[in-house]
Amino acid sequence: MISNSELKKQARDELKGRWGLAIGGFFIAIFFFPFIIDVINFFIDGSLPVKIIKYLIMIAIQFLLIVGTLKFSLNYVTDGKTPFLDDIFSGFKVAIKALTIYVIMTPCIILGLFLLIAPGIIVSLAFSQALYILVDDNSKSAIDCLKESVNMMKGHKKDCFILSLSFLGWFALMIIPAFLLAYFPFPISLGLTYLLLVFIGLLILIPYINVTFACFYIKVKNSYNSIT
Question: InterPro entries annotated for this entry (predicted)?
Fold first, then answer.
């Protein structure tokens, strides 16, 4: 398996000259549209059933935007393909299959976390490639994507887990100053500057992480296809 440093280098190489597109795409998917949805949600009132339906629709839309970012990231690293902003909305084209994967996967992970935490992590790692498989080949069913992910991740769950941990340092750099600002009397201007820097940092870090994991998917997929 290719090392984490090589995966990250590959991601940086793929993003080179295309950072602006990546930042714009993830801004739309992760910040702009969720904000618009929350604003609309705030002004729409109703009975409890209406609120529940509204909440479920909001979650579904935000989830499908995230699915779109997977396709967006995958097009950065797939030979012969080019990422476009409209990839962000591609999750809506496979909405039923993507939501089926989500509905099946989420309770399994939650149950595993409730048992002993570790089983939940293992299950999440086993299913981690299902949505990539779907956006890579949307002719496959939700069940086929989940099964293929489980098979594909045999022998690679540890690699995926370590890759995930390798990004924690970046988030720690953002979170630690937040605790300092919360417990010590810093000027408001410093707090606002920090929030702006965190926002800018996330706009750079999130595309970097996503394209790195897209590189991981391609490597695992090629390894899996070579032995099947």
Answer: DUF975
